[in-house]
């Protein structure tokens, strides 16, 4: 997601320190203290304007949620959008680059990672920027709990196929896979993102759930 640069983006973050985690590295391994209750931690990487993470936090008060976004202007837009509504106490946002997340989260700190409509970076020379490339998967492995899952949704067939191969190359497991989410039984509990609403009119939405280690009694 690219938005026009907002010169006030950092000010907007600072003014909303009840919602935004401002110096996340200083809280490494202590992020649960940002929340009223210590409960499972779910994060979305590349949350854009944050509709998905916001709706999750409202629907599932038994979990804590952190939405992570690399671009300050995009995060500022998310803050301004959320401020018009009631902000659930189990939701926080963070301006951060996913490749650095080991500086913020301890090993085993995160229960689930959501990747929604990640930028496809179609040129081969940009493949390393894809959020399902090896370098990013290594980071996720180092912050996820032992059987923690990654849920990935996209409308981009090329990125989906690349991601399946990346999962295979990294010896991960596919827990579930769906080639047309909106016409599957999984759609019932699906929470739509901004991109999903915009692009699902053009074709199917692909989804897979992946993990680094499978529980023995689970297939
Ligand atoms: C195509 S948008 C999708 C936004 C939202 N998830 C949705 O589905 O509507 C991808 C988002 O990922 C963010 N992003 C890309 N690379 C990132 C990174 N390395 N760390 C954190 N966010 C990143 C982009 O800034 C952009 O907002």
Bound molecules: S-adenosylmethionine
The percentage helix is 25-40%
How would you spell out the order of helices and strands?
HEHEHEEHEHEHE
Distance between the termini: 37 Å
Number of strands: 7
- Low-pLDDT segments: none
Structural commentary:
The chain has helices at 9-15, 51-59, 72-83, 134-143, 157-169, 194-199; strands at residues 41-45, 64-69, 91-95, 110-116, 144-154, 173-178, 206-211. Helix 1 (9-15) packs across helix 3 (72-83). It has a seven-stranded mixed β-sheet, with helices on both faces. The radius of gyration is 17 Å and the shape is globular. It has 219 residues and is of the alpha/beta class. It contains six helices and seven strands; from the N terminus they run αβαβαββαβαβαβ. Strand 4, helix 4 and strand 5 (144-154) form a beta-alpha-beta unit. S-adenosylmethionine binds at residues 1, 45-48, 68-71, 74, 97-99, 116-119, 193-196.
Topology of this protein?
Layout: H1 9-15, E1 41-45, H2 51-59, E2 64-69, H3 72-83, E3 91-95, E4 110-116, H4 134-143, E5 144-154, H5 157-169, E6 173-178, H6 194-199, E7 206-211
This protein binds S-adenosylmethionine.
Notable characteristics:
single chain; 219 residues; alpha/beta; 7-stranded mixed beta sheet; 6 helices; binds S-adenosylmethionine
